[in-house]
Predict the 3D structure of the following.
Amino acid sequence: MGQIIQAYGSYKAGQAYKAEGKSEQKIANYNAALAERQAEIIGQRTTFAQIRQAQEASRIRGSLMASMGASGISPSTSGAAVLAKQAKESELENLLIGYEGMTEAAQARSQAELDRMQGSLAKQRAKAKK
C-alpha cells in the first residue's frame, strides 16, 4: 500500500512540474510576443522620426536659400558650400536615427528570442523532474 501511495505522490508531483513548466513557457512566449511588438513599434517610430527629420532638413534648406537670396548670396557660388554642408549633416543625422532605431529593434528581437529559449528550457526542466 505504501508503494502505491508513493507512486501516486510521484505521479502528482510530475503533473505539477509539467503544469509549472507549461505555465512558465506560456509566460515566456507572452513576453517574447511583447518584445516582438516592441521591435515593430520601434521600427515604426524610427521611420516616422526619419521622415520628420527629412522634412525639417528640407525646411532648413529652404530657409537657408531664402536667407542667401535676401543677402544677395548666390546658391551657385559661395552658398553652394553652405547648402552642401547642411545637406551632409542632415543626411548623417537621418542615418543616425535609422541606425539607432535598428539597434534598438534588434535588441527587442533578441530579447524575444531569449524569452522563447527560456520558455523552452522551463518546459524541458519540468519534463526532467517528472
